[in-house]
Write a structure and sequence with these properties.
Shape of chain B: globular
Number of strands of chain B: 11
Strand content of chain A: under 5%
CATH superfamily of chain B: Amidase signature (AS) domain
Oligomer: heterodimer
Radius of gyration of chain B: 21 Å
Largest sheet of chain A: none
Strand content of chain B: 5-15%
Distance between the termini of chain B: 19 Å
Distance between the termini of chain A: 43 Å
Number of helices of chain B: 16
Number of strands of chain A: 0
Shape of chain A: flat
Largest sheet of chain B: 8 strands, mixed
Structural class of chain A: mainly alpha
CATH architecture of chain B: Alpha-Beta Complex
Order of helices and strands of chain B: HHHEHEHEHEHEEHEHEHHHHEHHEEH
Order of helices and strands of chain A: HHH
Radius of gyration of chain A: 23 Å
Chain lengths: 95, 486
C-alpha cells in the first residue's frame, strides 16, 4: 500500500493542518516509510485476540459533581490570543 | 566551595541542610551560578531564578527539616504545568501559555520543600528521541560537544548529568526517561502505569505516558519516586495501591532473585559493545547472588510498529485541543477553518505534524480496524508475553538502548532510524510495566551505556533494589569535563 498526495491532502484536512504541495510530497515520503515499517503487524494473525485499550486494570470511580475552582475566568481568559475580557474571540463564523 | 555543592548527590545535600552545614540559599545560588555558566547546553526553556532565591531565603528563615526535600532547588521538564510559570511542552503553539494550575507530581515535590529552578527543554510534546524537535533548539549532552542527550527528556537528563539540578522529573511514553538517562550516564525510572498522576502533564499518548524520577544514583531516584508516586483522584487512571517508602526499604540484598534474559533483545546490527555490556551486566547480577534465566518474549519485534500506531493515534486526538482559540499561538486566517489550519501548520513542528497525520490516518474511516484495532490486539500479545515470563522471573535485564548517544543531526532526517532508538524501552510502556535504566559502562568513544531492569507491575521496589545492588558492583563514574564552561 502506498499513500499518495491525494490521501495526504485528505488527512491534512481531517487534521486541520494546512499543507502545501512541497510539504505534502515530503510527508508522503515519510509516511510511506513509516507505514512500510508498521505493516509488519500483518504477519500476525490476531483474529482471536481481544484488543488492549488500557493496561490500568481499574474501573472508573464516581465522584460528586462539585465546583472546585471558582472565579478563575480572568486567569483563564488571560491566556487567550484574542478576547474582549469576557469572551474568547474567533474570526466571524456567521455571515 | 560553591563549585563542590553542585557535585553533591541529593542525599548529601539533604544531609547537609539537615545538619545546617549548608543553607537552601547557598545551594540554590550554587545551582543558579552553574546554570548561568552553562547556557551552551541549552537545557532551560524558562528560568525562575529570582523567585527560587526568594523561596530559598524564606525557607532558611523558618526551615522545616522534617521534609524530604528541605529547600532543595529542582528544575523540571517543561511538560509539567506549573502554576503561574510558563509551560511550553517545547512547542511554539504553547510559547506563551501560563498554567492556572499545578501538576500533581510537581505539587508533590513542592509539598516536600523543593524549590522550582526552572523548566527544562524537551522534544516538542515529548515526541522525539534526541531533543532535536524542540522549538527552543537542540540540547547539548554534557558528555561531549554536538552529541544529543537523547529524548524526549533531553534537557532533564543533561541538567542532572551536567549538575545543573540535583535531581529532576521527566516523562516517559516510549523511553523518554530511560533513553536519555542512558545517553548521559544517569539513572532514570519509568514507573508502572498508574503509579504517578498524569494530572497537569501536557498529554502525548494517554495510555502510555508516565512521569518518573531522574537522578545521579539509585538511592536519590528511589527517594524521588517515593515522593511523586501518589494516588490522585484527578487522574482517572491513577491506581490506588499500597506504595512503598522506596528509599527506606531499599536493600542491596537480591540473593536468589530470578532475572530473565530475553533472547529477542539481541537484535540485528547491535554493536558488539552493547552485547558485551549486557554480558557484563549478567555477570554483575550473578555476583550479587541473582539467578539468571533465559526467557523468550516472542512479540518483541512487533512492539515498535504497534507503538507507532497507538501513540500517534492518541496524540492526534490529544492535540486536537490546540486550535488557537483559548490559549497558545494563533495564526491569522481568512475564516475560522483557515485560522485553525494555519495555526496548527505554523504552531506545530514537523515531527508533531507527522505524528498527528499518522494518528489521524489510522483512526480514519476505513483504516481504524486495519491499523488501530490491529495494534491494540498486538499490544495484548506483547503484554501476554510479559505476563507469562513474570510467572517464572522477578525481573528482566536488557540493554537500555541499541547504541550510545549519536551526533546532533545524524538521524534527524530519517524518522524510522530515529524510532529504532526506543526498541528496548517501548515494550515496557505498551505493557504498563516499571523499568529503570542505570549507567553500566562506556563504549570505545567514552560515551555512557545503560542497562535496563524491567519489573512486574507495581514492583518498583524490586527493580530499585536490583539496580541498587548492581550499581555498587558496576562502580560507574560519569566522565564530565565541563567542556561547555569557558
Amino acid at each position: 500500500m502506498s499513500i499518495d498526495l491525494k490521501t495526504i491532502k485528505h488527512i491534512s484536512k481531517l487534521s486541520r493542518i494546512s499543507v502545501d504541495d512541497q510539504k505534502a510530497e515530503k510527508l508522503a515520503v515519510d509516511l510511506n516509510s513509516i507505514f512500510k515499517f508498521i505493516e509488519k503487524l500483518n504477519e500476525l494473525n490476531t483474529d482471536k485476540v481481544k484488543p488492549l485499550t488500557s493496561v490500568a486494570e481499574t474501573t472508573l470511580k464516581l465522584r460528586s459533581d462539585e465546583v472546585k475552582s471558582k472565579d478563575i475566568r480572568n486567569e483563564i481568559i488571560k491566556n487567550s490570543p484574542q478576547d474582549n475580557e469576557d469572551y474568547f474571540v474567533v474570526p466571524k463564523v456567521i455571515e | 566551595m560553591m563549585s563542590d555543592i553542585t557535585k553533591q548527590s541529593l542525599s548529601e545535600l539533604v544531609k547537609n541542610i539537615k545538619e545546617k552545614k549548608l543553607s537552601s540559599k547557598e545551594i540554590t545560588k550554587a545551582f543558579i551560578d552553574r546554570s548561568q555558566k552553562s547556557k551552551e547546553l541549552n537545557v532551560y526553556i524558562s528560568e525562575d531564578y529570582s523567585s527560587a532565591l526568594e523561596k530559598a531565603k524564606k525557607f532558611d528563615e523558618k526551615p522545616n527539616l522534617d521534609l524530604k526535600l528541605p529547600g532543595i532547588p529542582i528544575a523540571v521538564k517543561d511538560l509539567f504545568c506549573t502554576k503561574n510559570v510558563r509551560t511550553t511542552a517545547g512547542s511554539k503553539i504553547l510559547n506563551n501559555f501560563v498554567p492556572t494550575y499545578e501538576s500533581t507530581v510537581t505539587q508533590n515535590i513542592w509539598n516536600e520543600g523543593a524549590i522550582l529552578l526552572g523548566k527544562l527543554n524537551c522534544d516538542e510534546f515529548a515526541m522525539g528521541s534526541s531533543n532535536e524537535t524542540s522549538f527552543f533548539g537542540n540540547v547539548q549532552n554534557p558528555i561531549d560537544k554536538n552529541l544529543v542527550p537523547g529524548g524526549s527528556s533531553g534537557g532533564s537528563a543533561s541538567a542532572v548529568a551536567g549538575q545543573l539540578t540535583p535531581i529532576t522529573i521527566g516523562t516517559d511514553t516510549g523511553g523518554s526517561i530511560r533513553q536519555p538517562a542512558s545517553f548521559t550516564g544517569i539513572v532514570g525510572l519509568k514507573p508502572t502505569y498508574g503509579s504517578c498522576s498524569r494530572y497537569g502533564i501536557v498529554a502525548f499518548a494517554s495510555s502510555l505516558d508516565q512521569a518518573g524520577p531522574m537522578a545521579q544514583n539509585v538511592k536519590d531516584c528511589a527517594l524521588l519516586q517515593e515522593i511523586i508516586s501518589t494516588y490522585d483522584s484527578k487522574d482517572s487512571t491513577s491506581i490506588d495501591f499500597k506504595r512503598n517508602e522506596y528509599s527506606k526499604e531499599l536493600t542491596k540484598n537480591i540473593k536468589g532473585k530470578k532475572i530473565g534474559i530475553p533472547k529477542e533483545y539481541r537484535v540485528d546490527g547491535m554493536p558488539k559493545e552493547i552485547e558485551e555490556l549486557w554480558q557484563k551486566g549478567i555477570q554483575y547480577a550473578k555476583d550479587c547472588g541473582a539467578e539468571i534465566i533465559d526467557i523468550t518474549l516472542p512479540h518483541t519485534s512487533y512492539a515498535l510498529p504497534t507503538y507507532y500506531i497507538v501513540a500517534p493515534a492518541e496524540a492526534s486526538s490529544n492535540l486536537a485541543r490546540y486550535d488557537g482559540v483559548k490559549y497558545g499561538f494563533r495564526a491569522k486566517g481568512e475564516n475560522l477553518i483557515d485560522m485553525y489550519e494555519k495555526t496548527r501548520s505554523e504552531g506545530f513542528g514537523a515531527e508533531v505534524q507527522r505524528r498527528i497525520m499518522i494518528g489521524t490516518y489510522v483512526l480514519s474511516s476505513g483504516y481504524y480496524d486495519a491499523y488501530y484495532l490491529k495494534a491494540q490486539r498486538v499490544r495484548k500479545l506483547i503484554k501476554n508475553d510479559f505476563d507469562e515470563v513474570f510467572k517464572k522471573v522477578d525481573a528482566i535485564l536488557t540493554p537500555s538502548t541499541p547504541s550510545s548517544a549519536f551526533k546532533i543531526g545524524e538521524k534527524k532526517d530519517d524518522p524510522v532510524s530515529m524510532y529504532l532508538n526506543d526498541i528496548f524501552t517501548v515494550p515496557v510502556n505498551l505493557a504498563g510495566l516499571p523499568g529503570i535504566s542505570i549507567p553500566a559502562g562506556h563504549d570505545l568513544k567514552g560515551y555512557p551505556l545503560g542497562l535496563q531492569i524491567i519489573g512486574k507491575a507495581f514492583d518498583e521496589q524490586n527493580i530499585l533494589n536490583i539496580a541498587y545492588a548492581m550499581e555498587e558492583k558496576i562502580g560507574f563514574k560519569n566522565k564530565i569535563n565541563d567542556w561547555w564552561i569557558k
